[in-house]
Amino acid sequence: MKEKIESLKVLYREKIGNATLLKDLEDLKIRILGKKGELTELAREMRNLAAEEKPVIGQALNEAREFFTEILEEKFRILSAKAKEEKLKSETIDVTIPGDPVEMGSLHPVTATMDMIKEIFLDMGFDIADGPEVEYVKYNFDGLNFSGSHPSRNETDTFYITENVLLRTQTSPVQVRYMLEHKPPFRMISPGRVYRPDYDISHTPMFHQTEGLVVGDNISFADFKGILMHFAEKVFGKGSVRFRPHFFPFTEPSAEMDIECAICHGKGCRVCKGSGWLEILGCGMVHPNVLEYAGIDSAKYTGFAFGMGMERIAMLQHGIDDLRAFFENDVRFLRQFK
Ligand SMILES: [Zn+2]
């Protein structure tokens, strides 16, 4: 039996030495040390041996097992290192090949316009305030000096939830809330969604507004003219502006601000309907009643307010003539704003 073990050693040492593939080595390992391997078979035959021979052969078998384990491990190391080296040699990466394109989404044009407007006012030190879209009548109308019979209060112009609760028709109620919580001086804008029951080429039941409010000592019409002209220049570039008298319940005096048509530069075109001017926002000096409602002393403080539709600004920026396009989610339309 000892000779058998020795001849196995000689035979398999040579085979292991000659192996060139990891797979062959794996096979050899199974054939020598596996459950049905040569050494295991020999161990089984031990039961036929005389008692005094058993310890001697047992030890020889253990030594053989250790011997093979060792030389197999050594050979595995050599062959794996070689395989790795060959793999690295054969696999080269061409870094000049373009990668697979990843389809990127983009901001909705109204969101992009709103972000841009926020940036402009943040740069001028304005605070950005938020408020509920489901609002109390008192903040949406009463606090803004709308008379009890003002047509905007009609059910044809406002979505009511109950008698006292509605979907806000403007973001101005945020200003009322802000005035109740802050002491002047302050300057803030309140961008957000508003709701009115209209649907045609220039109206959708939901749209976006940004309204702004500045309150402090000696705030004058000249201050707001300067701020709004700076704003218009940032959005539409240098050009003339004009203020036309208008009426809003919450401001006195009130005005609408036009900019020189950015498309025809005042000559008159389809977008400006031949007038050469584009209306971009409404504004005015805050009505004393609005300040008083919010607990601000109108003898001490003055302020101005302005408001504009985000869709309108986006339409003028991009030359879009139907407001409804913003909300139809046609990807062919939206893709153009990447
Ligand atoms: Zn024009």
Entry summary:
This protein is α+β, with helices and mostly antiparallel strands and 338 residues long. It is built from 11 helices and 9 strands.
Task: Name a few traits of the molecule.
single chain, 338 residues, alpha+beta, BirA Bifunctional Protein, domain 2, seven-stranded mixed sheet, two-stranded antiparallel sheet, 11 helices, elongated, binds zinc ion
Could you characterize the architecture of this molecule?
- It is a single chain.
- This protein has 338 residues and is an alpha+beta fold.
- The chain folds into two domains: 2-90; 109-337, BirA Bifunctional Protein, domain 2.
- The chain is built from eleven helices and nine strands.
- The strands form two sheets. Strands 1-4-5-9-8-7-6 form a seven-stranded mixed β-sheet, sandwiched between helices. A two-stranded antiparallel sheet has the order 2-3.
- Helix 1 runs parallel beside helix 4, helix 2 (22-33) runs antiparallel to helix 4 (53-90) and helix 5 crosses helix 10 (310-318).
- The two termini are 83 Å apart.
- 28% of the residues are buried.
- The model has no long low-confidence stretch (mean pLDDT 88).
- Zinc ion is lined by residues 261, 263-264, 268-269, 271-272, 276.
